[in-house]
Amino acid sequence: MSSPTDFLDAARALLGPRGFTDDPELIDPWLTDWRGRFSGRALGLASPATTTEVAALVRLCAEHGVPIVPQGGNSGMSGGATPDPSGTAIILSLRRMDMIREIDPLARQVTCEAGVVLQRLHEEAEKYRLRFPLTLGGKGSATIGGLISTNAGGTQVLRHGTMRAQVLGLEAVLADGSVLDSLTPLKKDNRGFDLKQLLIGSEGTLGIVTAANLRLLPEIGGRVVAWAGLPSISAARQLLLHFEKVAGDSLEGFEVLPAHCLASVLAHLPDARPPLAGQHAWHALIELVAPADGAEQLATNAETMLATALEQELLEDAVIASNEGQAEAFWQLRDAIAPAERAIGPAMQHDISVPVAKMARFVEEAAPDIEQKFPGTTAVGFGHLGDGNIHFHVLAPKGAVRGEWEASEGKVISAYVHDLVTQFGGSISAEHGIGQMKRDELGRLGDPVALALMRSIKQALDPNGLLNPGKLVPLAQEGASP
Amino acid sequence: MSSPTDFLDAARALLGPRGFTDDPELIDPWLTDWRGRFSGRALGLASPATTTEVAALVRLCAEHGVPIVPQGGNSGMSGGATPDPSGTAIILSLRRMDMIREIDPLARQVTCEAGVVLQRLHEEAEKYRLRFPLTLGGKGSATIGGLISTNAGGTQVLRHGTMRAQVLGLEAVLADGSVLDSLTPLKKDNRGFDLKQLLIGSEGTLGIVTAANLRLLPEIGGRVVAWAGLPSISAARQLLLHFEKVAGDSLEGFEVLPAHCLASVLAHLPDARPPLAGQHAWHALIELVAPADGAEQLATNAETMLATALEQELLEDAVIASNEGQAEAFWQLRDAIAPAERAIGPAMQHDISVPVAKMARFVEEAAPDIEQKFPGTTAVGFGHLGDGNIHFHVLAPKGAVRGEWEASEGKVISAYVHDLVTQFGGSISAEHGIGQMKRDELGRLGDPVALALMRSIKQALDPNGLLNPGKLVPLAQEGASP
C-alpha cells in the first residue's frame, strides 16, 4: 500500500477541490450519524459529480487499498454510512450527484441520480400529476441512493412494497471500478441473475449505486384518513383483515399504536388533540386512497366500511378526518411517537418484523414478558401492522441514566428482544437495515447457511473488502483490506 | 473422482428404487426437451421425495464430482433442463416433491414444493376462493420449481409481474448440500442481501429450488375480454395507454397480433372464427377483471372505455365477448399462434423484449428490414405489448427444408434479430430464459460487466461447476467439474 499522501494527492487531482477534501472541518459533520450513536474518522471526503468520477475514484481506492464508506443523506438508522474510528477510509458522498436525468410521464418512469433527495423526487413527480409511492420521516434528507442501498420501507409498503419494488433499473459502480448499467427498464428480462436485486439492500458493501430508474404512479384523486379505537392489537388485526377485504387496493396504510404511545405524543406535542373522546387500549390509523375522480365515491365507501366494522364489533369507536388538515394531524400523532418516547427517557428501539399473522401475538406476549423480566421497564409496540413490522420500544425504568442504561441493561434487553423475534420466525431488521449497529447480532442469530452465502458473495464481489467494510456482513472483516 | 459405479451404488442406496434409476428406458423420456430441439445423455435419473433427500444427493454428487441437471416439467423453452451429450450428469427430477405443504387463506399464501404443477396450484387456490396470478400455455406440465428457476412470465405480467413478484419465500439446496431456508414470508426483512432474488431466474445454476411460499390473490368477480381491430401496432400502443388510464388496475392483459398471425390461426384451427367482420392490419386482445361483486359494473365500464376509444379513433372496430365461451375462444386465437405458425413451415422464434415505449417502433422497423435482408421470409411480431415482450417469428421462405434451414439461414437471422434488439436496449430473452439455447448469444451480446459479475457469483456459489453446467452462464464451463 502506498502512503496516504500519495492517495490524497491523486484523489485531489482526480476530483478537484469541489470533489475532494481532507479538511477536518469540512469532513467533521459527516463523521457521525444523525442520531449521534456512531462516530468515526475519515481520510477524506469525496464528492464526485458524475458516475465516471465515482468509477475513477473507486479504481484509485482499489490501487491504494483505501476503504470506501458510501454516504447519502446520512440519515440512516443503523450507522451504515458512518466510517469506523481507524481513519483509513474515505467517505464517498453521493450528494452532488443530484440530477433527475429523465422523467417519462407516459411510461411513468424517472431516471435519477443517487443524490436526489426523496422529497425533491416527490415534488418533481407531482409536476407531471404522478407520484412516487414511498415516503418516510426522513424524506427531507434521505437520498435515492441511500433508500435503495437500505431497501427502505415507510408507511406505504402495505400497498406498494419497499424500495425494491420501486426500482426498475440501476446503475452502480463495482469494487473494481467497472460500471454496471442496467438502467434501461425492461418489464421482462430473463438474461440470467437479476444483479440489481443483489445491490438493492446491500448497504454499499457490493457496489455503489449511482443512479436508478424508478416507477411512478398516477397521482391520487383524494384520500380518507380514519382513526379507530380498539380493545386490543388482536382486534386491530381483525380490522385490518376487514379492510383488506372491503377496501382492496384502496387501502394504503394501516398503522397501530397502544394507548401509551398516544399519551406520550399528547404530552409531547402541546397542540395535539386526541382523535377520539373515549379511552381505548389500542388505536389504528387507516389511510385509503382514491384514483383520479374517485374521491367522493371513496368518502362514501369509507363511511360504510367503518360502519360495518362497528356493527361487527371490530372497533369501539372511529372518526374520519374531516379535512386534509385533520388528516395531517392524525398522521402527526403517528409520526411523533419516536421523538415523544425519546423525550420520556432512555429507550431501546427495535425495528423488527414477524409474519403478519403472528404480529398481534408477538406484541401481546413479548411486552408483558419483558416488563416482568426487566422490572421498571415499559414495552410498547407500534407501527406497520399490515407489514408485520413493529417498532418495539423498551423504555428504561424511571431514573435510568441516559447513555449508561443503554450500554448495560439496554443491551441485554435488545439481545432478549432479538432472541424472541427470531423464535417467532421474524427479522431483527425489518426496514432500518443492519449497518454496524446490528452486524454482530446478525452474526449471532442469522441462519448460518444464509450468512455463509452472504460471505461468499461479498468475497466474490469485493475480494479486498474495500466497500463499506465492517457493515452488514458479519465477519466480513476477516477477509478485508490486505 | 471415483468410478461411476461407486456413485450409482451410493445413489441407489440413498434414494431407493423409486428415488434413483439408471435404467435407460426410464431415463430416456427426460433426455430430450419437449420441443425436441435439445437432446443429451445422463448417468441416472434421481427423483428424491424430500428436501433432505435432495440435500443428501447433492452432497453425494459433490463428493463424486457428478454434475446435476435439475428438471421440473421438462417443458422449458431453452433447453435449460436437458443434460449435455457427455452422459456424465444425472437428471434431478423434482416431480416427486409435489406436496402443497400449507395454504393460509387469511394471509393469502401457499407453501408448496417444487414439483407442484401450475394447474394444480390454480385448482387448489380456487378451493379457497383465491387465485394464483400467473398462467401460461404449459400450465399442465410446468412446475413451480421450474417456473421460479426460469422466472416465468405469461399473460398476466402486465398487472401482476413475473414469477419473481409471486415468490414470498424460498427453500433451496445449495452446491454443498446445505439448505437455504427462507420460506417464512416476511413483508419486510432487511437482514442483508436478498438471497432468494438471486436464486429466482438462475435456472438451477446456483442452487436447486425445493419449495416456495407464494402469494395468492382474491378470486376475481368476473372478466371482460374484448377484441379490437387496429390500423397499426403504434395505434395499439395508443390504445394500451388509453386503457392504462381509464381501466387502471382492472387491466389484466393486453396482447397484440398482426393480420398474418390471425390468418394463420384461422387456417390452422378449423372451428375458429374471426372476432371482427372487417380486415384490420393489427388486432388487440384486451382482458379486464373485476373484483368480487364488481362484474356488472366492469361490463358497463368496459363498454364505455371501448366507445371512448372508438370516438378518439384509437381503434377501427371492437367487440366484447358475450360470454365466457366466446372469451375463451378469443384467447384460443392468441394461444394458437405459435402452433399455427409452426404448421406453415420452419420458423425462427425469438422471445425478446424492448422498453415498452419502443416496442411498436421495433416491430415496424425490424419486420420489413428482415424481410428485405432475407428475401422470401415473413417476419411477424406478436405478444405482450404491455410488457414490451414480443414473440418475434421469422418464417422461412417457401420450400425451405425443416431442420436444414434453421441451422443455416435461420441461425444468421436469429443473430441479426438479437443484434437489433440489443441496439434497441432490449433483451434477447424476455421470459423463456437462456438455458443452453441462448447461452452463447448472451456471451456475445451481454454487457461484459454483467457477465463478469455473473461468472464471479457462479464461481463463488458453485466452485466446482456441478449445478446445471453449460446452462445460462456463458463460459461458466471454463471453471467446471474438476
UniProtKB/TrEMBL annotation, chains A, B:
Keywords: FAD, Flavoprotein. One of its GO terms (biological process) is respiratory electron transport chain. Residues 38-219 form the FAD-binding PCMH-type domain. SUPFAM superfamilies: FAD-binding/transporter-associated domain-like, FAD-linked oxidases, C-terminal domain. GO terms for molecular function: catalytic activity; FAD binding. Its cofactor is FAD. Belongs to the FAD-binding oxidoreductase/transferase type 4 family. This is FAD-binding oxidoreductase. It comes from Erythrobacter mangrovi. The lineage of its organism: Bacteria, Pseudomonadati, Pseudomonadota, Alphaproteobacteria, Sphingomonadales.
